[in-house]
Amino acid sequence: MQIQDLVKHIKEKKSFLCVGLDPDLDKMPSHLTDSPNAIFEFNKQIIDATHTFCVAYKPNMAFYEAHGIEGHVALQKTISYLNETYPKHFTIADAKRGDIGNTSRMYAKAFLEDLDFDSITVAPYMGIDSVEPFLKVDNKFTILLALTSNEGAKDFQLKQMQSRNKNSIDFEEISLFEQVIKTSQTWSNAHRLMYVVGATQTEHIQSVRNLAPDAFLLVPGVGAQGGSLSQVCKYGLNENIGLLVNSSRGILYASKGKDFADAAAAQAQKLQLEMADFL
Ligand SMILES: O=C(O)c1cc(=O)[nH]c(=O)n1[C@@H]1O[C@H](COP(=O)(O)O)[C@@H](O)[C@H]1O
């Protein structure tokens, strides 16, 4: 997918909502969980109910890998269903991968070529050679973890460090997550980079925007984690919109009854209407 297609879709829908597909058998309606096809059936009904209100879907790999081969089959069916039925929706493999170059190449092949996701989340800490294999894939996006939504983000990502600007002898104090953005913006194919920034980190979104003014930001953490959509919009929007805001549990498990898909649609619509006010 091209970035212009994503932006066009966002403007048409007046939504930059990403629905996180994190299927958890313990939270799903009981009438589905007896079926061997439960995960895909759940996802399909969620997708059919929410697609009008969102522009992206983000299956998190943990929720599939936890079920072995059946989980992998459910993931394959889900991405095929999305690509065939709703091809305008941007798809994110939330895999948080990254390894030495030849290994990352295999991850890129698996997620971006074979499964044909539009993008993948990648951990940046092994550096340029671990990210390059993802960035080399045409028409696909690498979503680098910058500042995550969890408590532990402060353990490393918010640590201060000294950074020297190119062609200068002066040092400046910046956070490790800022250095990740600053350095990665100099890499080849940086136009294929997006960044993860938690909705719980609103005081830092402005600084992310300053370092990567044109990049799309994937912002998880509204809903169940308590992040504020209006604060995210205030600091994160750019002239191309530049935001994908994710909600998973808040949409998927709005009801545990037979009306789960309608309840999910209502939650997605609520977020979409809030988003429309900012567009
Ligand atoms: O990369 C992510 O998507 C991610 C990064 C982050 O900083 N925080 C975060 O919550 N996520 C993911 O976003 C989703 C959030 O789910 P809910 O809290 O249920 O909306 C989960 O799949 C998380 O793994």
TrEMBL record:
Protein's pathway: Pyrimidine metabolism; UMP biosynthesis via de novo pathway; UMP from orotate: step 2/2
UniProt KW Lyase keyword: yes
Enzyme Commission number: 4.1.1.23
Catalytic activity reported: orotidine 5'-phosphate + H(+) = UMP + CO2
Pfam families attached to this UniProt entry: OMPdecase (PF00215)
Annotated Orotidine 5'-phosphate decarboxylase domain residues: 16-264
Active site: 96 (proton donor)
Transmembrane segments: none
InterPro entries recorded: Aldolase_TIM, OMPdecase_type-2, OMPdeCOase_dom, RibuloseP-bd_barrel
Catalytic class of the enzyme: lyase
Keywords assigned by UniProt, alphabetized: Decarboxylase, Lyase, Pyrimidine biosynthesis
Classification via NCBIfam families: pyrF_sub2
Membership in a protein family: Belongs to the OMP decarboxylase family. Type 2 subfamily.
Protein known as: Orotidine 5'-phosphate decarboxylase
Protein source organism: Psychroflexus planctonicus
